[in-house]
Amino acid sequence: MEVVWLVVVFLVIIISLNGVECKRVKSRRRALDDEYYYSAISCRAHSASIVDYGGVGDGKTLNTNAFQQAINHLSQYGSDGSQLFVPAGKWLTGTFNLTSHFTLFLHKDAVLLASQDIKSWPVVDPLPSYGHGRDAAGGRYISLIFGTNLTDVVVTGENGTIDGQGAVWWQQFHSKKLKYTRPYLIEIMHSDSIQISNLTFLNSPSWNLHPVYTSNIFMQAITILAPVTSPNTDGINPDSCTNTRLEDIYIVSGDDCVAVKSGWDEYGISYGMPTKHLIIRRLTCISPYSAAIALGSEMSGGIQDVRAEDITAINTESAVRIKTGVGRGGYVKDIYVKGMSLHTMKWVFWITGNYGSHADTHYDPNALPEIKGINYRDIVAENVSMAARLEGISGDTFTGICISNATIGLAKKAKKYPWTCSEVEGVTSGVVPPPCNLLPDKGADKPAACDFPEESLAIDNLELKRCSYMMSYF
Ligand SMILES: *[C@@H]1O[C@H](CO)[C@@H](O)[C@H](O)[C@H]1NC(C)=O
Ligand SMILES: *[C@@H]1O[C@H](CO)[C@@H](O)[C@H](O)[C@H]1NC(C)=O
Ligand SMILES: *[C@@H]1O[C@H](CO)[C@@H](O)[C@H](O)[C@H]1NC(C)=O
Ligand SMILES: *[C@@H]1O[C@H](CO)[C@@H](O)[C@H](O)[C@H]1NC(C)=O
Ligand SMILES: *[C@@H]1O[C@H](CO)[C@@H](O)[C@H](O)[C@H]1NC(C)=O
Ligand SMILES: *[C@@H]1O[C@H](CO)[C@@H](O)[C@H](O)[C@H]1NC(C)=O
């Protein structure tokens, strides 16, 4: 009897010891599970979760106030910096504003859902370099995530999702009911040192990511998806920005995958802020009605020093397209493109000098754009309808166009003449099918190199830090 009792006590002790051991292991596991690591331009001293501010990730509760209160509260930490964690869940929200020295971090299963209640979106002024909204003459609905006059902002995650639920906006656009210009998913204005990385953006009401009047921008590992028929769902629009680096970007959309801009007609000319020093690397684009990379059409502040490398386009209308026109003014110069793999395309080289689409009727008909120094090399294309459609402006020849080492496989139903050129001037070498007379072949002994710059840009020397967010239970 006593022996049996002893054995029972012994067993109980062993079991409870095991229990302790289990618990200890478990709590260590928990800590591990709830620590998140990411790379960023700066790490932050202070952390909070959206849940701490009353956020509810049920897909129904509106979290606009939770986001804005969290960010307003965290902004007190100033240059020590702060980060806001968004856990797994569906977080319905209206628009909110970012602050400086701040990181918004999305868990991999976190989805921000943009409110579809159009009435609740505040309206802000048109951009000074545009003078007007693009969908309607007046103001613009503020972007879902907005920031102005900021420094050092990171929006990142583990490929978490920001879903613009844009269908209601597309309907309003098609039925011409919009009173103001549609919002973007993220707009950052007048700012410096911005990172957007490791996120997926879905169904934006209009453009997806719009840095404007901003410098030192780094975007990496971004997926952008929208129906290929959705209106103006441009992927990334660097607009009057300096030092921008876009890397590892995958975009399926209804408009240009990357659209480089710098203001519209007389407004862009007088604002006078170019987009320059832009790197685009490892971009994959699917956009049957638009370009992989567009320069313009709003380019009135100028576009200079764009370096595009390793571009893949599948079922996309054109590759790197320049869009401009009389009245735009400004310039597009020192453009370098190296390494493109293109599958199913209407025009590999497309330059349009009569794009039209004016802000208003007050544009200056003498404001002619200067287009020069446009370099393309190392290109393989297949199933192409026309190799090139290059149209300058009468009295304003587009010069210094250089194309080398390009093999363009034409489609079975290709157009009869693969090249059409007017008011353009330049050279080629090693281009198949043979180019138009305005772009003579320099031959194998004196090849047109269309050299890509060798010196790196400052934005390439960013040092990313290893940062973490630790879930706290207090
Ligand atoms: C994005 O995620 C990948 C894979 O986890 C990681 O290697 C990379 O450093 C991340 N980039 C940034 C800028 O967060
Ligand atoms: C966000 O910023 C815009 C533009 O500065 C401003 O109009 C708006 O009131 C701000 N929203 C909040 C909630 O502070
Ligand atoms: C933001 O910066 C711009 C350009 O420097 C300036 O014109 C504007 O007044 C600033 N806005 C605020 C709210 O500080
Ligand atoms: C991120 O998510 C998107 C959408 O689900 C997916 O297509 C993409 O492959 C993911 N990217 C990575 C790096 O996991
Ligand atoms: C020509 O382009 C192809 C495809 O991009 C590339 O593999 C090859 O190295 C290029 N040739 C030269 C001489 O640069
Ligand atoms: C070639 O392009 C046409 C459209 O111009 C498309 O219908 C067809 O599927 C493409 N073929 C291949 C093999 O990709």
From TrEMBL:
InterPro entries per UniProt: GH28_Enzymes, Glyco_hydro_28, Pectin_lyas_fold, Pectin_lyase_fold/virulence
Record keyword Coiled coil present: no
Assigned keywords, A-Z: Glycosidase, Hydrolase, Signal
Hydrolase is among the record's keywords: yes
Pfam families: Glyco_hydro_28
An example molecular function term from Gene Ontology annotations: hydrolase activity, acting on glycosyl bonds
Stored PANTHER family: PECTIN LYASE-LIKE SUPERFAMILY PROTEIN, PECTIN LYASE-RELATED
Name under which the protein is recorded: Polygalacturonase
Organism per entry: Penstemon smallii
